[in-house]
């Protein structure tokens, strides 16, 4: 019986291809949006997890603001946060962490206000002021040239840039020896970072950043927003003690207020993943609206289909079709529309993910669970949307249906 319903549904859909395609459009968009967005979130989380696994478990991250506010995952978000004066870190905070027991190194991450220029080109990305130990803490390698060192070069006007900066500002991959200008001062490019995965553990995207020595950044004037401090304990077993001692030190500097957050590696990873989860849920929720719109579209088309096929319903009932058979026929047609929409939506999502992989640094990860959930939602949407039109069809009087001209 259900096989007969399926054949009849296919026949009906093929008989109105254009209308059926428009009907499925909402489901296609809903499924493709959900699968693509969740795949992007999962891919970024996996990249962040991989990055975190490569970074020393002795690392402690200090961020401005309370914990619930400081769980942002990018420098741009942190910069906005500091601009709103809800929390700050100072150079004294950084220097004082160096005096804490069992601390082997402490590295500041500051944003320099200004725009980098080269000839007629401008780059409005991140200009980061830091010290020589930052790449080692983040396990970030230099692909061309070299990073600045602590021995005599921290006052020099030198810069190490990301791959995106090299291509967009200089139009080449290896602009070693060329100079860019920041606030009227020339900085010689002496290194280019390796391409970084899109994961942004510790909130730095190396690809679009220009790194200059902290002392040189101070010399050119302007405002340096100290957005993070990375503190490395001498041993992983001392991380908890170091965190507590650093907290006590900074509370003294901040007049007894704990307007900052100290995160160990796993906590920073959890905070970052929590943000990605929230973004994924929000965007998927917006995409879910497409299912509602698609369901309404299917329901409207099915009501129109029932009206157009009133005479057919009357004939079927006259030769013995029961109400349940009529109901099953139209529910199957509605469900088949949504199943086809779900199928094409998943295909569209795979195409979108492939394009994203080729054209960006992002690496979406599509799991079978996501595909199953999206496909299941499309089936449920089709069945629910088809129940009322099918019930209307099943309730038609066969005599009155045979008399209609429709």
Structural features, described:
This protein has 406 residues and is an alpha+beta fold. It folds into two domains: 2-48 and 276-403, no CATH class; 60-264, no CATH class. The protein is 55% helix and 17% strand. It is built from 13 helices and twelve strands. It has helices spanning 2-15, 17-54, 75-83, 91-97, 134-138, 163-170, 214-219, 239-253, 265-308, 310-318, 323-359, 368-394, 398-403; strands at residues 59-64, 103-112, 116-118, 121-123, 126-130, 142-145, 158-161, 179-182, 185-193, 209-213, 224-233, 260-264. Strands 1, 2, 3, 4, 5, 6, 7, 8, 9, 10, 11 and 12 form a twelve-stranded mixed sheet that branches. Strand 3 and strand 4 form a beta hairpin. Helix 9 (265-308) crosses helix 11 and helix 9 packs parallel to helix 12. The longest helix is centred in the C-terminal third of the chain and has 44 residues, at 265-308. The model is unreliable at 68-73 and 81-85 (pLDDT under 50).
Descriptive keywords:
alpha+beta, 406 residues, 2 domains, twelve-stranded mixed beta sheet, elongated
Helical percentage:
55-70%
Q: End-to-end distance, in Å?
A: 26 Å
* Average predicted local confidence, pLDDT: 78
The major beta sheet can be summarized as:
12 strands, mixed
Query: How many alpha or pi helices?
Result: 13
Sheet-strand content, in percent, reads 15-25%
| Structural shape | elongated
Low-confidence stretches: 68-73, 81-85
Structurally, how many domains make up the residues? 2
Give me the count of strands: 12
